[in-house]
Amino acid sequence: xxxxxxxxxxxxxxxxxxxxxxxxxxxxxxxxxxxxxxxxxxxxxxxxxxxxxxxxxxxxxxxxxxxxxxxxxxxxxxxxxxxxxxxxxxxxxxxxxxxxxxxxxxxxxxxxxxxxxxxxxxxxxxxxxxxxxxxxxxxxxxxxxxxxxxxxxxxxxxxxxxxxxxxxxxxxxxxxxxxxxxxxxxxxxxxxxxxx
Amino acid sequence: xxxxxxxxxxxxxxxxxxxxxxxxxxxxxxxxxxxxxxxxxxxxxxxxxxxxxxxxxxxxxxxxxxxxxxxxxxxxxxxxxxxxxxxxxxxxxxxxxxxxxxxxxxxxxxx
Lengths: 196, 111
Prior knowledge:
The structure holds 2 protein chains of 2 kinds. Chain A is mostly helical. Chain A has helices at 11-19, 23-44, 49-66, 77-96, 118-134, 138-149, 154-161, 165-184. Chain A has 2 domains: 1-98, Orthogonal Bundle (Rna Polymerase Sigma Factor, Chain: A); 102-196, Arc Repressor Mutant, subunit A. In chain A, α2 packs across α4 and α6 crosses α8. Chain B is mainly alpha-helical. Among the domains of chain B are: 50-80; 81-111, no CATH class. Chain B is built from 6 helices and no strands. The relative contact order of chain B is 0.04. Chain A binds chain B through residues 18-23, 26-27, 29-31, 34-35, 38-39, 42-43, 49, 52-53, 56-57, 60-61, 64-65, 67-69, 122-123, 125-130, 148-149, 176, 179-180, 183-184, 187, 192, 196, and chain B through 1-2, 4-6, 8-16, 20-21, 23-25, 27-29, 31-37, 39-42.
């Protein structure tokens, strides 16, 4: 359950309150949903924060405009929002013809002493994962991010991506294999030497 | 091995800053329907048709009139003499009190 000023209410309850003109529901929903949308857009858009913010703003605007016609029980707000966000990201990537980054261009982790600092190592790992994710096909990236970073269940991902649960399993399995292949070569520099 | 990378990605998730949150909240409030104002919903053909025909009272009158008309057509009262009329044995128009050539038309014909 999200922790905010109205944490006892579901997203769907808050959206219904928003549609009735409840300003506190507008604020609570924004606080609750914006970080999730931004994080998902950021990962889908290869770490481009400015683009991710644009997508977040657009996705939430669409939610506000859909609120008056929202049918309770038909869809979860987060499922709908993840789908809209991913579609906006994919549209942008296709329009911009953004190519995946060259793995050699991924920032290297510094070899000297500060790299041993835990926080830096964590940032380096996150950055390396993002770079590896960027090389995956869009749908694989979306499935892996939703399953392993956002922590959603396969049935929910299937609804978001409009595919079957088995297709989700297949996408995540292939995505993980590709990530392992890319990241295994960087284990030592990312602090995995000697541990598994 | 990947789990540690996923954990790191979660820990390093980008957070919206204050300005961005303020902008998003302003959007939400600007788009919010005004309390008490009926939101434009989906109205079907039936919902539009009933008021156009004078509401339920008008509609019930219309249905009653249609039913009577249908009944008269199916089983006409003998007093109308329609059977005779169809069979050609009934009264001619003149006998029914209807003048097929009115005074006005006679005046026209005679100049």
